[in-house]
Amino acid sequence: MELDKMDENDWKYHGEGNKSLVVSHVQHPRVLRLLKYPAEDSENPPQTAEQAYRQIQNIVDFSSNVMSSLLGEKFIHSGEVVKLPLEFVRQLSIKVQHQRPAWRCDKVMDIYSGCALCLPNLTSPALHQPTHTPPLCIEIKPKCGFLPSPKHVSKDIKTKVCRYCMHQHYKVANGKWKRRSFYCPLDLFSGNRQRMHFAIRHLIEEPQNNFKVFKGGQCIYSSKEGSDESPDMNSLLHHLRPYFLHTNNRMNSHVTSKAVLNDFIQVLVNALLSSGGGDGSVVADRQAEGRGFCEASIFNKERIRHGSRGLPSDSVLFRILQTQMLDTLDIEGLYPLYRQVEQHLQDFPKERTRLQIEGPYNEAFLEKLQKCPSENDGSVEYAVAKVHQYRVAMTAKDCSIMVALVPSSEEEEDNESLSSQRQLRDFRPPAFSYSASILDLDPKPFDSIPRQLRLDQKIVSCYLRTGGALP
Ligand code: ATP
Ligand code: ZN
Ligand code: MG
Ligand code: MG
C-alpha cells in the first residue's frame, strides 16, 4: 500500500461497529479501520492527531502483546497503524456516508487525525483462488459464556440467568431491538454439539449484532437495528445452497432448505470445535460446577442425547472463554478494588504510569495481570491486577470470531468422488477447509468500570421487574 498514492475509489464501505468504521480494498485483501466519535463533536474532534495515533498504537500493542498471548497467536492479526493523507480520508468519508446504516449515524468517522488501523481482510482469506467458489465467512460475536460465581453477586438471579439473556430483555424494553433473540452464549460455549447447533440456529434467526455472513468478502446476511423485518433467511439459503449440493446425495433441487441450513450449522460447529493442530484434549467443562447452563435458555436439557464433552482446549471458543473467566469477581466484586485504585491514583498521581493504568500494553502489563496474588492482601498491586484482568476479560466478552469456510478445490473433490462408493450411500459432509480468527480486541478504558456497574444494575433490575414474565 503506497500511502502517498491513496485513492478513495480503491476502497469501499465494509462495515462498522460502535467504535470504528471499516473500509475494504477492492483488490487486495486488506481493510482500514477508522475511529468514530459522536456526531455532536464533528466540528471539534475529541482528541488531537497524536492522541488518535497513540490510541490506535495502544490497540495494536494490546492485541499483539496481551490478547494474543491469552487467546493464541494463531487466531490474532493485530495489524499496524497507518498515517493517511487527509484529503483521501475526507473523500472516503463522503463516499461511504450513504452506505452507512442510519442507526449508526449518531457517530461520524474521524477525518481529522488521518490515522487508521490497517488489517488483513478476514472476509477474503488469501488461500482462496479467485476462479473457484468464493469463501464463506461467518462472524459471530459470542458474548459472555459463563455465569458468575455466587460468592460475589448480590442478586441470586445472576447465578441462574446469563448476562446476555438478561440484556436481551433490557434491549427489547428500551426499543433497541424489536424481538428478543433466543441465542444463549452458554449453549454456544458448551462444547455439546446439540446445544451449539441450537445456539447457532437462533443466531441465524435473530442475528442482531451477533451474527453476519460474508460471501466473497461481501456481507450477505445481517440484522437491521430497530427494524420490524427479520433478515431475509430465504436469500441466505439461496446463497448457501450451491455449497451444500452433495448433502445426503440428493440432487441439487431436491435438497430441502432445512437440510441446507442443518449442514451449514454442522460445518460451523465443526469449525468452532476444530482444534487447529494442537493435541485437542478435552478439558473438564463447567457443567459440574453448575455454571454452564442458563435458566433462560429455551434449549431442552432432556434433548441431550450425548453427554457434554466440553470444549477442546485449543479451540477458539475455549481460548475466548478462558480469557473471559479472568473476570473472577464479577463487576460487583471488582468495583471496590477499582475504587481503591482510583483513590490511590488521586493520592499519588505519578503512580498511574508505574501501574500502567492506560498502558503501555507490553509484556510488563501482561505480567502484572498474570502474577496476581491469589488472595487479596490489601495492596494496590493486587487491586490493579484484578482491574487489569477484568478489562482483559471485558475485551474477550466483546470480541468477534471470524470463521472462514473455503470450499475444497474442485480437482480434489473429483478425485474423491471417483474413488468413493460411499457418496452413493450415505451422508458426505461438504468439503471445506476452515480457519478461525478473532477480531475487535480493543482495550476497554479504565474509567469505563463505573459505567459497567451501573449498566449491570439496570439490566438486573429490569430483568427482575419484567424478565420471566415476558414471552
Ligand atoms: P463493536 O461495536 O463490536 O465494538 P467496533 O466498532 O469495535 O465494533 P469492529 O468490530 O472491529 O468495530 O469492526 C466492525 C465490523 O467490521 C466487524 O463487525 C466486521 O464485520 C468488520 N471487520 C472488522 N475488522 C475486519 C477485518 N480485519 N476483516 C474483515 N472485516 C472486518
Ligand atoms: Zn443465557
Ligand atoms: Mg465488533
Ligand atoms: Mg469493539
Structure characterization notes:
By secondary structure, the chain is α+β, with helices and mostly antiparallel strands. It has 2 domains: 3-120, Inositol-pentakisphosphate 2-kinase, N-lobe (Phosphorylase Kinase, domain 1); 127-471, no CATH class. Helices cover 38% and strands 14% of the residues. The chain contains 15 helices and 11 strands. The chain has helices spanning 49-71, 86-97, 163-173, 185-188, 193-205, 233-240, 257-273, 316-324, 330-347, 351-354, 363-370, 380-398, 410-419, 422-425, 449-466, and strands spanning 11-16, 20-25, 30-38, 80-83, 107-109, 115-120, 136-140, 211-215, 218-221, 400-407, 432-439. Strands 1, 2, 3, 4, 5 and 6 form a 6-stranded antiparallel sheet that branches. The chain has a 5-stranded antiparallel sheet with strand order 9-8-7-10-11, covered by helices on one side. A hairpin with a 4-residue loop joins strand 2 (20-25) and strand 3 (30-38). Helix 8 packs antiparallel against helix 12 (380-398) and helix 9 packs across helix 12. It is globular and about 70 Å long. Mean pLDDT is 88; it is low at 411-427. Adenosine-5'-triphosphate binds at residues 14-20, 22, 31, 33, 119-123, 139, 212, 398, 400, 439-440, 442.
